[in-house]
Specification:
This protein is mainly alpha-helical. The protein has a three-stranded antiparallel beta sheet. Strand 1 and strand 2 form a beta hairpin. The two termini are 31 Å apart.
């Protein structure tokens, strides 16, 4: 459960940076995120269809995808190979196909060796620190689409 919650902490931290950077004010169907200008524009339109919502989006929700979130923040390519390895391990510590931190809600830390859990915890702290230390850079880099 700890690794599941740790992944959620990283996800929420990344999303908080995205919301602040792009001034996100509204979401639609959990998929599309809009800044205030887009919201105002949509509010002034009549007969808004799904295509218009998609067209006017500021960003698409990265959901549980750390890499997509970091790319939206223009930070993924700035990460060292060592840090991307840590990111990958936190995202999928069991190394199984299609299992991410989200799937770990049903797995107890006792199901992993002490060494595996220690590595996960050290990587989690290192990534969290990296993100917090790069917060000012993330906020200064101008926004773009997805």
């Amino acid at each position: 459960m700890c690794m599941h919650l740790g992944g959620i902490i990283i996800e929420c931290l990344l999303k908080s940076y995205i919301v602040k950077k792009y001034k996100i004010k509204k979401i639609k169907d959990l998929n599309y995120w809009y800044d205030i200008e887009s919201v105002d524009e949509l509010m002034n339109l009549s007969n808004v269809t799904g295509n218009i919502y998609k067209e006017k989006k500021t960003l698409k929700n990265p959901k549980h995808d750390f890499v997509k979130a970091l790319k939206q923040l223009n930070q993924y390519d700035t990460m060292s190979d060592e840090m991307t390895d840590k990111l990958d391990f936190i995202n999928n510590p069991l190394g199984e196909d299609k299992n991410t931190f989200i799937d770990l809600r049903y797995i107890h830390e006792d199901d992993m060796s002490e060494n595996e859990f220690t590595k996960w915890f050290q990587d989690f702290i290192a990534l969290r620190n990296w993100l917090e230390n790069h917060q000012y850079i993330i906020e200064e880099v101008s926004g773009g689409d997805e």
